[in-house]
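User: Teach me something about this protein's shape.
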Amino acid sequence: MPPTVVPVVSPAPLRPPTPAPAPIPPAPDPLTPPPPAAPPAAAPPPALPAAPPPAPPPAPADWA
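Assistant: First, the predicted structure itself:
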């Protein structure tokens, strides 16, 4: 008696379902005034002046 072949049915779909499309935002109402613009960003602080170069090391006393 030949063995019975049972078809294997995968419970999961072969490919993931496609995500739902993103909803389309409503068109702006022409009678509605536009939202106020964001306030301008604060001006950055002025750059600090470049630091002076480091002083040379002091000369040894025996160089006098």
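Now, about its shape. The CA atoms of residues 8 and 14 lie 13 Å apart. The mean pLDDT is 69. If you'd like, I can walk through any region in more detail.
User: That's plenty for now, thanks!
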